[in-house]
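Every protein is a chain of amino acids, and every chain bends into a shape of its own. Below is the pair of lines this work produces for a single protein:
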Amino acid sequence: MPTRSTLGTDQSQKASQPAIRQSSSPSASGVLADWQIAALQKLTAEEPLLVTDDHAMSRRYYRTLLTQTFGMKLLETWDPNEALRLCQTERVSLVISCIVKPLTIDGLKLVTNLRADPRTRDIPLLFITGATNTREIAFQAGASAFLTKPCHPNEILQEIWLLLRGRVL
């Protein structure tokens, strides 16, 4: 079952949050402006982001970054089959996935399945992975964007903005 992240932080959560610079205008380093964050918050309130990753620590990281730090709504699942089902039944704005998964389907098969279904073919998919030599394969399979771990939190936010900006402007 997916878990839905909700807003709310306490002192222990604040201490573990990634260090992110926020400003009123974007900088050369790719930091999003407050108005961009607000636009993403508004979009994801109606159409949440979906994170699918088999590592609980990765899901917790995305939850901390995207939900607790930046107030975006997020669905989570460890199971790529569940992710596919959620994309088919829920309004999802973007999928964030790793490539290598020790389950029935991997991230490449997930994106192939998303692109093959008329209900889900237009949902952007951002791969964030530590798998080496997979960038070209990911784009051939239908990925919208690709980041290699480790990546800075600002890079993740910038990619989300680039993929969704047409829907919030």
